[in-house]
Design brief:
318 residues; alpha/beta; TIM Barrel; two-stranded antiparallel ribbon; 13 helices; 10 strands; 13% strand
Length: 318
């Protein structure tokens, strides 16, 4: 069954590569939820550019700027704009640039989204409003309002563990039908039944599903998702690209082998709040300083040691 769904997905994905309407197609493959390095309290643009170029050289299809992993909640508007412009400059013609702009205030989300659009974003990633806990009708109204005021595509981000609200498959399908620039969802509900239902309701539409969890990426892509927006890509970009490409090519056994090898890393990257572990791992790899913005703080020593063991096993460090 997995193989049949994968081959159906590959055929549809290839057929969607043409773009007669002139509208941008969403990325197909892996997108890095990139970290934001800091040094002495400021954004470390030098390290960011180095990490970004490494990601592009590794073959990623998209870069997600200022998302959860990028500590977007504590970035200033000016920092967001500079990161977006820099990312666009480096990624032009190589990977799509997607900017996390979601807040729990619809008008504030619009302001951040218009800024991202102005500074070159190819799409925006908009998380469901957190804390407010809107109803399904409120979620629909939120995304509809934004869709009517933005020119670039919108990716819905569903992560109930952080937001306290789950957008239903029926609401997602309603938005996909009624809003021409709501093009995808990053689905981080750990219950794969949710993404299965979204696939069932939207499979005949020009709508993409991305796994929002690294440990579910293999399963969701085999079941119709178009790719993954990944934290682990910050650490092992080439391996994640290899895994997803193996699924697309129908080599499920190869993909499963890589997925299995990476499971310890997937788990370790979330033993403390993301992005604490991933930045600690990248620090061990010499990619950035182990620095965060409050209210995030450095990881426990036990976390660092666990990451050190896993990175050595993967050959990421000596």
């Amino acid at each position: 069954m997995y193989f049949l769904r994968v081959m159906e997905f590959i055929w549809k994905g290839e057929s969607n590569m043409s773009n007669p309407s002139g509208q941008m197609r969403m990325f197909h493959g892996v997108g890095t939820a990139i970290v934001t390095p800091f040094i002495n309290g400021e954004v470390d643009y030098e390290s960011y550019e180095r990490i970004l170029r490494w990601q592009i050289e590794s073959g990623v299809s998209a870069i997600i700027v200022a998302g959860t992993t990028g500590e977007g909640a504590t970035l200033t508007v000016e920092e967001r704009e500079r990161l977006t412009a820099l990312t666009k400059e480096i990624c032009e013609g190589k990977a799509q640039v997607i900017v996390g702009t979601g807040t729990n205030d619809t008008k504030k989300t619009l302001e951040l989204s218009l800024s991202a659009q102005k500074f070159g974003a190819d799409a925006v990633l908009i998380v469901t409003p957190y804390y407010n806990k809107p109803t399904q009708e409120g979620l629909y109204a939120h995304y509809k309002y934004l869709s009517e005021r933005l020119e670039i595509p919108i990716i819905i981000y569903n992560v109930p563990s952080r937001t306290g609200v789950n957008i239903s498959p029926e609401t997602v399908a309603r938005l996909a039908v009624e809003c021409q620039n709501i093009k995808a969802i990053k689905e981080a509900n750990p219950d794969v039944a949710q993404s299965d239902e979204i696939y069932r309701l939207t499979k005949d539409l020009d709508f993409y599903i991305y796994s929002g969890n690294d440990d579910r990426a293999f399963h969701m892509i085999c079941a119709g998702a178009k790719g993954v927006i990944s934290v682990a890509l910050n650490v092992v970009p080439a391996r994640m690209v290899e895994m997803v490409n193996a699924i697309f090519s129908g080599d499920i056994s190869k993909a499963l082998k890589i997925h299995t090898q990476l499971i310890p890393l997937f788990k370790a990257l979330f033993i403390e709040t993301n992005p604490i572990p991933v930045k600690a791992a990248m620090y061990l790899m010499g990619l950035l300083e182990n620095e965060y913005r409050l209210p995030l703080v450095p990881p426990k020593e036990s976390t660092v040691e666990r990451l050190r063991v896993i990175l050595k096993e993967l050959g990421a460090i000596e």
